[in-house]
User: Which sequence fits this backbone?
């Protein structure tokens, strides 16, 4: 195979791959020489060792004497009057003109291309030209270096309604071969025919043409073959055939170039064979093809789709080293991927790099990033980009607005979400179902059900159709408010509209019933749901488990966990936190510890909340030894304690009078940027007072007051006494005021 490859490389004229008569003769010759050594590698050349087939001669019908006379008259007349309108010139002959005359006349005038076209045009106005006549004119136009005309003539044949498109393409192919030698002899005609077949979607026809032409020693050009590959890869079934075509065509003498490789990389990525695509990219370089920006961009897109973030960054670096600029589409994929995996800050770095490289990001890129920030809960950063966009006169579209509305809703800033919505309307932007649904969901989550329903009505009035997601938001809102009856009414309405409830709708209902403590009905609903063919997911089970845990029925909760595992559903950290909380509340600390161990064995990473539940119970039991042990476990898993963890530990240690330990944790917490809770302050101050470490107690008390936190009344009493005895009357009175004020506030607050 190697030999073959080299041979083609040497003998194939690169510019005109179709003129390769001589190539075949030479290769046949070499074949004979080397057949001795590698007979089977050269089978194809052997079969063509007689040389390519010759194109047939054109053998038209002979005209009668009378016909000849007429043809002669027509020819002389039109040649004599080349500048007169052809209709007028041919008027006297019109009544006697027959289809056959056309070809006889062409034989005479074929060297005068303009005349041929005029004449053909004249014919077309009168009748549909025969396939043979059309093919002849096609050959003449290619010979006259007018490929556009040839293309049009072929294309018309397949697309014009008056043409019998059911005609098999083979008939066309045969006619083109038949008329080739005598009317044009420019092999480019087959290239054009091939391109049209590709364009009109007759792909197997194109392939048949390719092989047919090989018999005549004509190889279709890379350009056309690229079109073929690219058309094939437009659908997934076609994609699957591209690798075979790629290697087959190459064996037949097509010299693929960079563009061809790029199409293949794209096709392989589309099929999800990203690694294979990458291999091709590497091979491309090895074989000396230039990898261009498209090659890399396509590859990067492929990796973005499968979420291989590390390779994406590596390829981006490689591109930069090679001085290739990624295109907007690629950058958008990269930014999208980074946002999806939660690396929003990195995504923004890509944008900055892009701007630095003088690529002007478009609204799609900005919107992707704004959406990323919103989903990550960083609305401030999203607004910053929104402003930047406007400063650069890149106009946000409904998608951008919807992302921001959603971000604000998530943060509970409904008024801001609504004003963005109004801004959209003021700008006469198209507000669609998605935007309405996002806003309705926001209002529901905020407990503003009435407003949500009024938006729903508005949406219907505008001719938009709420979908199941919209209704699920409404159902969820009602359930969260405990309005199960209204939710049920709405359900009936949804079903009457023919919409199918989905798992989210059911989960909202289950959640609503559980919140009302109606576990029995929730379980019943889950059974109904299974009958309807919708299977409970991890969320459903977790909700039910939570309800059982809260009701103190750990056996039932445990049974559900078992059922869930039997169904192959993977519990999440939320599931475990629910169970952990249940065990802890029920005082089943040993079970809690076992659960934690089991969870780690299953490879489900607990978070600080999981550990906090256990630590809290042990510290309530004054078992600081066990509490500390669990804390060490948390650190051992590489988790970071959160403010709540510190709070539990500090208060526990203070109560156990381990002031040294408590003080150390306090310092660590502050260094990490966490604020102490009121309770932790109270515990620490009381601990120090008990240990007679008044100075530390005073410092903390001042710090607490500066932060505007209210110490408990006992501490105010202690410090008032202390200051009174020290003679600080001003401060004593000040504290007195403060204590009164806080206690009043406390009382009204309760
Ligand atoms: C590949 O070949 C086609 C046709 O010969 C040409 O139009 C195209 O520019 C080439 N592409 C590259 C990247 O060389
Ligand atoms: C929001 O994103 C910006 C930019 O990445 C970052 O500097 C900031 O800390 C983020 N804010 C929050 C609250 O995460
Ligand atoms: C809502 O968003 C606006 C604009 O970002 C901000 O000015 C306002 O403080 C936010 N309100 C709340 C309650 O977060
Ligand atoms: C731990 O997971 C719970 C879900 O059960 C979540 O609400 C909480 O925010 C997580 N805590 C931390 C510190 O990530």
Assistant:
């Amino acid at each position: 195979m190697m030999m073959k490859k080299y041979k083609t490389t040497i003998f194939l004229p690169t510019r005109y791959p179709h003129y390769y008569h001589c190539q075949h003769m030479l290769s046949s010759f070499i074949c004979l020489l080397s057949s001795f050594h590698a007979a089977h590698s050269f089978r194809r050349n052997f079969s063509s060792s007689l040389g390519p087939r010759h194109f047939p001669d054109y053998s038209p019908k002979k005209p009668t004497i009378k016909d000849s006379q007429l043809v002669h008259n027509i020819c002389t007349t039109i040649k004599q009057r080349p500048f007169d309108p052809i209709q007028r010139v041919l008027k006297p002959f019109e009544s006697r003109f027959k289809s056959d005359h056309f070809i006889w006349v062409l034989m005479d005038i074929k060297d005068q291309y303009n005349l041929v076209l005029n004449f053909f045009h004249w014919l077309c106005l009168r009748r549909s030209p025969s396939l043979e006549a059309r093919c002849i004119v096609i050959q003449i136009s290619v010979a006259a270096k007018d490929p556009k005309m040839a293309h049009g003539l072929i294309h018309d044949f397949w697309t014009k309604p008056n043409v019998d498109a059911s005609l098999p393409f083979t008939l066309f192919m045969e006619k083109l071969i038949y008329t080739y030698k005598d009317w044009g002899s420019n092999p480019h005609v087959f290239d054009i025919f091939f391109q049209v077949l590709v364009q009109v979607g007759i792909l197997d026809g194109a392939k048949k043409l390719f092989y047919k032409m090989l018999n005549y020693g004509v190889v279709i050009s890379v350009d056309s073959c690229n079109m073929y590959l690219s058309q094939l890869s437009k659908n997934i079934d076609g994609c699957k055939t591209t690798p075979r075509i790629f290697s087959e065509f190459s064996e037949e003498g097509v010299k693929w170039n960079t563009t061809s490789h790029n199409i293949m990389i794209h096709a392989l990525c589309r099929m999800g064979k990203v690694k294979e695509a990458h291999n091709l990219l590497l091979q491309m370089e090895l074989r000396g093809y230039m990898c261009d920006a498209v090659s890399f961009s396509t590859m990067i897109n492929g990796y973005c789709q499968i979420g291989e973030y590390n390779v994406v960054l590596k390829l981006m670096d490689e591109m930069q080293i090679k001085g290739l600029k990624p295109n907007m589409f690629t950058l958008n994929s990269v930014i999208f991927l980074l946002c999806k995996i939660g690396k929003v800050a990195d995504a923004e770095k890509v944008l900055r790099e892009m701007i630095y490289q003088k690529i002007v990001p478009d609204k799609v890129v900005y919107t992707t990033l704004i959406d990323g920030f919103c989903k990550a809960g960083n609305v401030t950063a999203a607004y910053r980009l929104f402003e930047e966009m406007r400063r650069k006169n890149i106009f946000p579209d409904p998608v951008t607005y919807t992302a921001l509305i959603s971000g604000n809703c998530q943060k509970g800033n409904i008024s801001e979400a609504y004003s963005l919505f109004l801004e959209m309307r003021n700008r006469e932007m198209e507000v669609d179902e998605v935007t309405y649904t996002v806003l309705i969901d926001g209002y529901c989550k905020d407990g503003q059900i009435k407003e949500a329903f009024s938006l729903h009505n508005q949406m219907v009035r505008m001719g938009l159709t709420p979908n199941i997601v919209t209704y699920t938001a409404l159902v969820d809102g009602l359930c969260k408010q405990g309005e199960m009856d209204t939710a049920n009414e709405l359900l009936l309405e949804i079903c009457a509209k023919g919409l199918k409830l989905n798992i989210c709708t059911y989960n909202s209902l289950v959640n609503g019933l559980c919140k009302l403590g109606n576990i029995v009905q929730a379980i019943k609903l889950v059974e109904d749901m299974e009958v309807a063919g919708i299977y409970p997911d991890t969320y459903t089970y977790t909700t039910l488990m939570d309800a059982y845990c809260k009701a103190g029925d750990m056996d039932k909760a445990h049974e559900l966990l078992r059922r869930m595992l039997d169904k192959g559903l993977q519990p999440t950290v939320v599931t475990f936190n629910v169970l952990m909380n249940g065990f802890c509340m029920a005082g089943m600390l040993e079970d809690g510890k076992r659960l934690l161990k089991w969870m780690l064995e299953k490879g489900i990473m607990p978070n600080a909340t999981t550990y906090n539940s256990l630590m809290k119970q042990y510290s309530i039991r004054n078992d600081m030894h066990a509490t500390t042990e669990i804390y060490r476990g948390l650190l051992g898993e590489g988790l970071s304690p959160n403010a709540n963890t510190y709070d539990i530990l500090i208060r526990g240690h203070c109560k156990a009078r381990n002031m040294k330990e408590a003080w150390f944790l306090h310092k660590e917490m502050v260094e990490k940027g966490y604020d102490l809770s009121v309770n932790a302050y109270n515990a620490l101050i009381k601990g120090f007072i008990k240990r007679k470490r008044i100075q530390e107690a005073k410092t903390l008390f001042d710090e607490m007051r500066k932060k505007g936190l209210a110490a408990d009344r006992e501490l105010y009493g202690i410090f008032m006494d202390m200051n009174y005895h020290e003679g600080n009357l001003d401060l004593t009175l000040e504290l007195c005021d403060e204590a009164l004020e806080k206690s009043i506030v406390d009382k009204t607050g309760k």
Summary: The mean pLDDT is 87. The chain has 42 helices and no strands. Residues 572-638 form one domain. The pocket of 2-acetamido-2-deoxy-beta-D-glucopyranose (ligand 3) is lined by residues 383, 413, 416 (CB under 6 Å).
